[in-house]
Backbone:
């Protein structure tokens, strides 16, 4: 079981692998417990694990949290949906047609370094404080990266695959539909998985200003009323939701691209 | 233009402009191929073999000169010239059967006919039973056989092959050569086959064209006067070894120029 654990690039036993993950997790919890139960830090800054669990249970019992989760989820999902709706086709075009790359790559490459949060005042000015503004932040936070990543995926379609398709008689439109699209689809799904994860990280930013509900809003409120346990519960929920969407995308990937697996047909 | 020739390469020159200046890949390349002939082109690496094939395929435009297929000048790629690359170019998301039928489906051939044709070629290349396999489940030699079947299923006028067995181990390559000859004898296709392997060029070809070092031209054409069908025993005959000696001498001169 301890074989090879410090040999670079060598496989290790499954027990050792999983065990390592558990140990890391457990150490974190233990450190937290020692700090909080040991009275080493003020519970006003770091509540104990037990306190966090108790708060979580009561929050779910009172039921307000479901509404926050629902509204936050729809903001993230819709903002991301529109980013993907435009970003995926645009990225494919940029990856295939040099003229599209020339037209959009420089501007997108520039904007993506601008912080989404800094645009919030502008968004508020332009579209007010409603749901659209929240989605705009999520959109802004993911769209540019997503588009560039899809472009890269599409660009990496094997050149010989495209050329052999011409010798089999494809026209330009068929090349898109029958070769470039299916060849880049796994990479696109993977890109969506990664960028959806990022969308969650923009949630709190989006709900920083002008929100009256949502997980981000709940976290800000908790901070105002010095309730660190609620903050931690909010953070954990966002993390778990992100993890869940990640798993869903992975399941879609596995179900859709069985041709990538060696076993069985 | 040579009378009655299937494919005519007439004084083709190809210049690539690169960062480090111009590369003349081909210069005054001329030869022709008759209907049903199996032509191999032999040359040291970097001499312009792939370029010549790509010009015929229409994937590369000649800087000057012309290429004619059945008397018509070639402008761009098309399904009348099937191509097999050295790299594996099967569509990984399609089954073997769907890969072979890819060109037929583009032409709008009926589903039933697609299946009949792809099964016919699967049988020909000895991969019956692999209809529903995906490329990832196949060995390198199998993939190349499917690529050959896919090109043939389109019923092209000529089959262009760019070192298709170059990535395979020696044993597999030798078996693939025999399979290819069998396929050729049954389909009577015109084949233009590129290789840097002297034995391969003799074993397969009716005529071997030896290319010069870059800029590539045809240095010499040598007919292989050995009857068909051929099998691997032929590789140890004295006729074969004489030819091999002659070709090795020719190719050696060019290889030395190429590395200088
Ligand atoms: N697209 C290209 N751009 C620039 N140079 C090229 C290109 N394609 C081929 N060449 C050059 O042309 C020469 C012939 O290449 P190629 O036909 O691939 O040779 P071979 O197939 O005989 O090894 C080489 O020197 C190669 O570097
Ligand atoms: Mg080559």
Residues:
């Amino acid at each position: 079981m301890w074989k090879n654990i410090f040999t670079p690039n060598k496989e290790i036993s499954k027990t050792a692998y999983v065990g390592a993950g558990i140990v890391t997790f457990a150490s974190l919890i233990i450190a937290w417990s020692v700090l909080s139960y040991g009275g080493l830090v003020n519970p006003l800054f770091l509540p104990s694990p037990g306190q966090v669990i108790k708060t979580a249970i009561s929050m779910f019992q009172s039921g307000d949290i479901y509404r926050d989760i629902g509204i936050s989820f729809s903001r993230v999902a819709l903002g991301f949906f529109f980013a993907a709706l435009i970003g995926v086709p645009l990225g494919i075009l940029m990856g295939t047609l040099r003229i599209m790359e020339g037209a959009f790559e420089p501007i997108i490459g520039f904007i993506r370094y601008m912080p989404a949060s800094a645009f919030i005042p502008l968004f508020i000015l332009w579209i007010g404080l409603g749901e659209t503004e929240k989605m705009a932040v999520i959109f802004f936070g993911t769209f540019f990266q997503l588009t560039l990543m899809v472009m890269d995926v599409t660009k990496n379609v094997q050149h010989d695959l495209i050329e052999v398709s011409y010798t089999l008689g494809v026209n330009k439109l068929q090349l898109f539909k029958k070769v470039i699209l299916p060849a880049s689809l796994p990479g696109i799904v993977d890109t969506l998985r990664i960028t959806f994860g990022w969308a969650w990280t923009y949630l709190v930013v989006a709900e920083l200003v002008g929100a009256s509900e949502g997980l981000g809003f709940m976290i800000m409120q908790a901070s105002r009323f010095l309730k660190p346990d609620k903050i931690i519960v909010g953070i954990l929920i966002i993390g778990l939701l992100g993890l869940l969407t990640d798993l869903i995308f992975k399941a879609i990937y596995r179900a859709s691209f069985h041709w990538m697996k060696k076993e069985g047909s | 233009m040579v009378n009655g020739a299937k494919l005519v390469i007439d004084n083709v020159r190809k210049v690539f402009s690169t960062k480090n200046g111009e590369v003349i890949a081909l210069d005054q390349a001329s030869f022709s191929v008759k209907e049903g002939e199996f032509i191999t082109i032999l040359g040291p690496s970097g001499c312009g073999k792939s370029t010549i094939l790509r010009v015929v395929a229409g994937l590369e435009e000649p800087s000057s000169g012309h290429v004619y297929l059945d008397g018509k000048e070639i402008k761009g790629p098309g399904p009348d010239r099937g191509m097999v690359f050295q790299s594996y170019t099967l569509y990984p998301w399609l089954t073997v059967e769907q890969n072979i039928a890819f060109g037929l489906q583009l032409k709008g051939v009926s589903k039933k006919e697609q299946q009949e044709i792809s099964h016919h070629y699967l049988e020909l290349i000895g991969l019956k039973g692999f209809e529903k396999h995906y490329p990832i489940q196949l060995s390198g030699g199998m993939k190349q056989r499917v690529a050959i079947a896919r090109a043939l299923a389109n019923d092209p006028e000529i089959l262009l092959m760019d070192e298709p067995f170059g990535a395979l181990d020696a044993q597999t390559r030798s078996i693939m050569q025999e399979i290819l000859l069998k396929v050729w004898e049954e389909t009577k296709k015109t084949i233009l086959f590129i290789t840097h392997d002297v034995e391969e060029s003799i074993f397969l070809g009716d005529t071997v064209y030896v290319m010069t070092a870059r800029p590539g031209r045809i240095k010499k054409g040598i007919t292989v006067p050995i009857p068909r069908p051929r099998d691997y025993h032929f590789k140890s005959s004295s006729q074969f070894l004489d030819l091999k000696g002659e070709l090795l001498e020719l190719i050696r001169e060019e290889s030395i120029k190429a590395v200088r």
